[in-house]
Design goal:
It is built from 1 helix and no strands. The chain has one helix spanning 2-87.
Length: 106
């Protein structure tokens, strides 16, 4: 009876060893696929972060461009104002009557 149990145990160990041998390459393949997927995820995460940084930079560039455009409009307005003052000199205003000098005596 002990011999029979021992033989069955050896057969079971032998079967399990064969199963392990057949599964080991599959496990290795799955490890490689997992590592590749992890690497791909890391790469995609880096690309996403770079994309977000680029979007933020583009938003900031837009804000700066709007501020620059506004400043240029103000410069043009001031230039126009100066040119208008140069082409239309100020009109001299006559002094008020009380400020006039009396006519010279003869």
């Amino acid at each position: 009876m002990v011999v029979l149990v021992l033989a069955e145990s050896e057969k079971r160990v032998s079967d399990l060893t064969e199963q392990l041998k057949s599964i080991s390459p599959q496990v290795e393949q799955l490890k490689k696929e997992k590592d590749a997927a992890q690497s791909n995820r890391t790469e995609n995460q880096s690309k996403l972060e770079a994309s977000n940084t680029a979007k933020e930079a583009e938003t900031e560039r837009g804000k700066l461009q709007a501020a620059l455009d506004q400043a240029n409009k103000e410069i043009d307005r001031l230039k126009s104002e100066v040119e208008q003052q140069q082409t239309n000199p100020p009109v001299s205003v006559s002094p008020a009557p009380e400020e006039t000098l009396p006519p010279p005596e003869r």
